[in-house]
Amino acid sequence: MTIFNRNDNKPADSKPSAIDALQTPKPADQPRPQATAQPLSPPAKTGASMASVISKALKITGQLESTEDIQIDGEIDGDVRGVGVKIGNNAKVKGTVYGDEVELAGTIDGRIEAKKVILTGTARMSGDVSHQDIKIESGAFIDGNLKPDFGKTTGSKPAVAPFKPVAAVASSTPDKSADARH
Amino acid sequence: MFALSRRSDAGIAPARGGIDLPPSYFGAGLRVRGVLEIEGELTIQGFVAGRIAALKLIIAAGGRVEGDIVAREVVIAGNLNGRVFAPSVTVEESAHIEGRIFHNAITVARGAHFDGRMPWRPIVFFETLDQLPETQP
């Protein structure tokens, strides 16, 4: 029978001592056990105010919105909204790119709507460009219309649309598995 | 899509050794909705809603992710609402997590806010993870 009683007879002294042991730091201040061989470096430190970088290894199916600059070297299937958007040499965007300034050296299959547009010599643009100010370098490929009507259109959207509240963004996620995962 | 194919790299070897591609970085002002697939490292300081598949994922302090994560290594110092499938997981003290962490080796720092379960799985589980398990009640 005693096996069932466990330590229930003396909870008063066992509990506080356990808490004490937790709260007093061990004198040696031992290194925390780690899941990997890597040191637990604070990862947030690298480039706290740096613009966002989407490297060539990254593929996004969905939408990006940013209040900062974006450098895209990867592949995006969806719309991009940013302030300064740079689309690198091997990058591909399928969708509309909105921004104050859009610099294209890669491929866009869609639209550009920006105040200032730069198409470099390696750019491949399939679709219309709505701009106020455009620079096209020799070698750029354009299949579409260029219209200097950015900001004059009836919609007159701001370059960066105001963000929806977080809850609205989350609830409109197409991914069903994002709901009720507990 | 989600299987961590290279058997030798999984788990024991530090994931950084297998990463030769430049890391991606999502700044604080960036919001992304959708499916992300990265053959490398990604640091998130902004907001991501959707599914993420990466080699190494870092949710920096201030970053927020809603959705499922599949990676070889995950470091969480920010906000997460969702599930993690990774052999190696580190939860920093600034983390705020609701959900499940399927892991093979985990470190949880003192002070981390973690509400949920963290089931252990053998390495094979992560290598053969072709489809994410359905969420259970």
Task: For this entry, give a set of tags.
heterodimer; A: 182 residues; mainly beta; 13-stranded parallel β-sheet; disordered C terminus; B: 137 residues; seven-stranded parallel β-sheet; 13 strands; globular
Summarize the structure.
The complex is a heterodimer of chains A (182) and B (137). By secondary structure, chain A is mostly beta strands.
Describe, in plain words, how this protein is organized in 3D.
The complex is a heterodimer of chains A (182) and B (137). Chain A has 182 residues and is mainly beta. Chain A has a domain at 52-147. Chain A is built from 3 helices and 13 strands. In chain A, strands 1, 2, 3, 4, 5, 6, 7, 8, 9, 10, 11, 12 and 13 form a 13-stranded parallel β-sheet that branches. Chain A starts with a helix and ends in an 11-residue tail after the last helix. Residues 36-48 and 166-182 of chain A have low confidence and may be disordered. In chain B, 4% of the residues lie in helices and 46% in strands. Chain B is built from 1 helix and 13 strands; from the N terminus they run βββββββββββββα. In chain B, the strands form 2 sheets. In chain B, strands 2, 4, 6, 7, 9, 11 and 13 form a 7-stranded parallel β-sheet that branches. Chain B has a 6-stranded parallel β-sheet with strand order 1-3-5-8-10-12, with no helix packed on it. Chain B has a domain at 42-127. With 137 residues, chain B is mainly β. Chain B has one helix at 123-127; strands spanning 24-26, 30-38, 41-44, 47-53, 56-59, 64-66, 69-70, 73-76, 79-85, 88-91, 96-102, 105-108, 113-117. Strand 2 (58-66) of chain A pairs antiparallel with strand 2 (30-38) of chain B.
